[in-house]
Amino acid sequence: MxxxxxxxxxxxxxxxKLRDEKDYPIxxxxxxxxxxxxxxxxxxxxxxxxxRPEIMTIKEFEEKxx
Length: 66
What we know:
Blueprint: H1 3-14, H2 24-32, E1 37-39, E2 54-56, H3 58-65
Parallel strand pairs: 1-2
């Protein structure tokens, strides 16, 4: 990944204003790894509107994909 691509990703991520700073590395890792879905029970991720990864709970994942 080129440095300017990483800079754009980090700028996007930090503009989201997560309540818990400890969640940033998780979200950054998911975006860099290009995952389709981030499954979490952490309520701090609720309301984050990203096209990818799609952020959902285990229950939402089961209802949509299983």
